[in-house]
Design brief:
Layout: H1 2-16, H2 20-38, H3 45-60, E1 64-65, E2 68-69, H4 76-87, H5 91-117, H6 120-132, H7 134-139, H8 146-162, H9 166-182, H10 187-200, H11 205-234, H12 243-250, H13 266-269, H14 274-291, H15 293-307, H16 312-319, H17 328-333, H18 337-360, H19 365-382, H20 395-405, H21 419-436
Antiparallel strand pairs: 1-2
Helix pairs in contact: 2-5, 2-6, 3-4, 5-6, 5-8, 5-20, 6-20, 8-9, 9-11, 10-19, 12-14, 18-20, 18-21
């Protein structure tokens, strides 16, 4: 008993140390740097595209492939990566950037929790979970846009809750705009939340409307130059030209709810003009939905399932190299089951306890806004297809909710708090049976 009390006292002293968060941030960054210098990770798939685009910007000043302009990928993440490559033009510099983005997100999570709860121990718990859970460590080694999008959303939130000056609202809008240039699907949830905030604060219209307008101006200032560039180059002011193909991938006869297609219609894939291809992709997808409304509705649970599936793709990117002519199931099954379970369990526990915590705080302002944003984010993505990557920018919502419940005695429990955790658990079991059964 004395040993347990000593451990509790030690932990309590650690939590209350003034520089605890600083040491956590340094430790988290140090671990990531050690992994980066001791491993050799080749960029694959989307990461390879971002890598090539960033190098092309830094070397030739063109967003494209060699001298061919593109808008297939949004510019947000490749542009930031190109700034790093201008100084250090090698892949590991990009991985260090990823690590820095994730560590900074941990710092923002710490301060957002402090603002909501004013409890340092809870804030330390939230930052610790984010910094050391395997999924964010794995993200440090992959050049993908999710860590940047997450950081931008957190930074904009932090500015909004900490700063009342309207100039800061403009900066928050610019940051939100850049998050849209990183992941264009963030556009709809952001706009809807701003409109809901405007409605809820209708008694303060005189103060709120100018702030909302200033934020929208900030968003427009961030995204307009990119849209003008696309109008000049392609003749249409779009954020990206991959929406049509992604829409068709999620809505065609062979669709299964994920990023998978077994046939390439010539009218879509043989066209070099990105704008035309984008429009045809939307047209083919819409035609399929109109002609097959029942199949489209049946596909929705599958898309949700893939979106909230495990982070197996991160595991596969490190453990498998020969994926030629192999399906996702075959590639995943090559990883021993016990190893997969051990690696994926922390993220599963995070989601299970996160769903429970969000349910418990659902009546609070934070709970309502979090669940609404998660719902909108999910709805936008299931219009296209589901992928585990797409739920990663939402993880801070879960972590903050968990931290808010930490060091708090729950006074009552209800079966409704367990519905989403049970659904998440069933989904994980179904995924494991699909892969290894």
């Amino acid at each position: 008993m004395n040993t347990i009390n000593h451990i509790k006292l030690l932990l309590n002293n650690i939590f209350l140390q003034k520089n605890t968060i600083l040491w956590l941030l340094l430790l988290a960054f140090g671990i990531r740097v050690l992994l980066i210098v001791s491993t050799h990770q080749q960029p694959l798939s989307d990461a390879y595209d971002y890598h090539v685009l960033a190098l092309n910007i830094s070397e030739h000043g063109i967003f494209g492939y060699d001298t061919i302009h593109t808008a297939y990928r949004p510019i947000g993440y490749p542009f930031l990566l190109s700034v790093v490559y201008t100084l250090f033009p090698f892949y590991k510099a990009g991985q260090i950037l990823q690590s820095l983005l994730i560590v900074l997100s941990g710092y923002l999570i710490y301060h957002i929790i402090l603002f909501i709860k004013s409890h340092k121990k809870s804030a330390i718990v939230g930052a610790f979970i984010w910094l050391f859970i395997p999924i964010t460590i794995g993200q440090s080694l992959l050049l993908l846009s999710e860590p940047l999008c997450t950081l931008l959303l957190l930074l904009s939130t932090y500015i909004l809750i900490k700063k009342t000056n309207k100039y800061w609202h403009f900066i928050s809008g610019v940051i939100l705009g850049y998050s849209i240039l990183t992941r264009p699907t963030a556009l709809i949830p952001i706009i809807v939340l701003l409109l809901i905030y405007l409605y809820k604060m209708k008694s303060l219209y005189k103060h709120v409307i100018p702030s909302i307008i200033i934020m929208f101006i900030g968003i427009l200032c961030a995204i307009t130059p990119w849209m003008i560039r696309n109008y000049v180059v392609f003749g249409k002011p779009q954020l990206t030209t991959n929406g049509g193909i992604n829409f068709w991938i999620g809505n065609n006869e062979q669709a299964n709810g994920s990023y998978k297609f077994t046939h390439e219609p010539p009218e879509l894939f043989n066209i070099k003009n990105e704008i035309q291809r984008d429009s045809i992709g939307y047209a083919l997808g819409l035609q399929y939905i109109i002609e097959n409304p029942q199949k489209t509705i049946v596909m929705i649970p599958q898309k949700i399932g893939f979106m909230w599936s495990s982070d197996m793709y991160i595991l596969l990117s490190f453990l498998t190299s020969d994926t030629h002519n192999k399906s996702y199931k075959q590639t995943a099954a090559s990883v021993p089951f016990h190893f997969s379970l051990l690696a994926l369990l922390p993220s599963l526990i995070l989601l299970l306890y996160g769903w429970y915590s969000l349910g418990y705080v659902a009546s609070t302002e934070y709970g309502k806004l979090s669940l609404l944003f998660i719902f909108l984010w999910t709805c936008v993505h299931i219009v296209f297809f589901g992928s585990a990557r797409y739920h990663e920018p939402l993880l801070p919502f879960f972590i903050i909710a968990i931290a808010l419940l930490s060091f708090t005695k729950t006074t009552h429990t209800s079966i409704k708090y367990y519905i989403l955790p049970i659904a998440q658990c069933i989904l994980f079991i179904a995924e494991m049976i699909f892969i290894y059964g």
